[in-house]
What does this fold into?
Amino acid sequence: MSSLTDYAKNILTRALCGRAPVLPTAVFLGLGTGGSDPTGISGEAVGNGYARQRVVFTGTGVQQNAESVRFTFTAAAGSFSHVGLFDAASGGNALTWSPLTTSVAVAGPGTVTINPGAFTMTGD
It folds into this structure.
């Protein structure tokens, strides 16, 4: 992911200043149609079986998803060009966002899959 939201920047700032931030205990990936640093992704999918998916990371430097992340749709849901990381399965706070390498169109029932190791986070 390339961009931190303002919320995530504030967490890191508190940590760097020796103040104990409240860190997420789990993180969830979402699909959207756009993104911005202040708010994360925009146009997050709604309905048609969509739900944010929990992501477990592995790695000592660059973090990458340890398992496949699968979004299942029961009907057409449109096209998605961005992913966002959140601290809750619904609602919660956006942490990061990034454009997908290739947009994905959901034209009917099916699954969008991000393979293990294909989703990475760096400290850059």
Q: What stands out?
A: The longest strand covers residues 94-106. The two ends are 10 Å apart (CA to CA). The CA atoms of residues 42 and 84 lie 9 Å apart.
